[in-house]
Design brief:
The structure is a homodimer. By secondary structure, the first copy, chain A, is mostly beta strands. The first copy, chain A, is about 15% helix and about 50% strand. Chain A has helices at about 70-75, 120-125, 145-150, and strands spanning about 1-10, 20-30, 35-40, 45-50, 60-70, 80-95, 95-105, 110-120, 135. In chain A, strands 1-5-4-3-2-6-7-8 form an eight-stranded antiparallel β-barrel. The two termini of chain A are about 30 Å apart.
Chain lengths: ~150, ~150
């Protein structure tokens, strides 16, 4: 079970280059449930996500990940609908948690979204966002990666 | 984790019509890992299976299942490689366990395979197959459904 919140970015943290980052390419075979392939650096993944009910401000998903080899990735890539989503993901510490800052490339060049994953619904509800975070878009489907692949 | 053994069928059990059965259609988006869609009766599934190492006679898989609606099923069906596999599956009690007897239709009309799932590797190794079971083909890839979809 994945519990996360998603925000726009008011301003980028300084010295981004000092944080670990990875190049991501991903695409979708299906969006309900989400059937996603992702290349992160040199590692290939298939992820299936089921949206489950939520009573808090956070997103709750069942998420299952499977490793792919490059051949399987390319086979599934050829079956994707919409465009491939391209972004650089930075991992930035926020207290005891880690923010994942995505800076998009290609069709959505310049778009910036930051996500935080929480150990519990209570932690998600209690999260005090840093100054550099912008509006909470956890429930705004226009900022889902699957929406971005088609729009 | 799924632990199962697979056999050919020496002769069909009598009065098959008395056992519960369901019509299955399935196909493959990828075979390594296995990314399978299945229609069983009126219910649609996406299943991803990772083959894991085994030291016994049984097959060990990590298997994750997700419900699909008919629209998602048809979308993914259009992306399948090979042929759709068609079969009638009968559930037949064998002691405390349940045998799943598949009688194939279409391209493999008449092929019969029976599978038993076990609670442990020990139970799989100790299984005393009924008289109506034929050769153990647990490790023979020609009898995997994904092989049958392409051959």
């Amino acid at each position: 079970m994945e519990i996360e919140r998603k925000f726009l970015v008011e301003r980028l943290p300084e010295n981004l280059v000092h944080y670990s980052h990875i190049e991501i390419e991903q695409g979708y075979l299906c969006t309900s449930p989400t059937v996603r392939i992702r290349k992160a650096g040199d590692v290939f993944w298939l992820t299936v996500k089921e949206r489950t009910l939520s009573t808090s401000t956070a997103i709750h998903n069942r998420e299952e990940e499977f490793r792919l080899d490059e051949e399987a990735y390319n086979r599934l890539k050829s079956k994707c609908d919409g465009r491939m989503v391209l972004k650089t993901r930075y991992k930035i510490p926020v207290g005891d948690l880690t923010a994942e800052l995505d800076i998009f490339h290609g069709h959505h060049e310049g778009l910036r979204i930051v996500e935080v994953e929480f150990p519990s619904t209570e932690a998600a509800d209690a999260f005090d966002a840093p100054q550099w975070f912008g509006a909470d878009v956890s429930t705004d489907r226009r900022y889902t990666n699957s929406f971005l692949a088609f729009n």
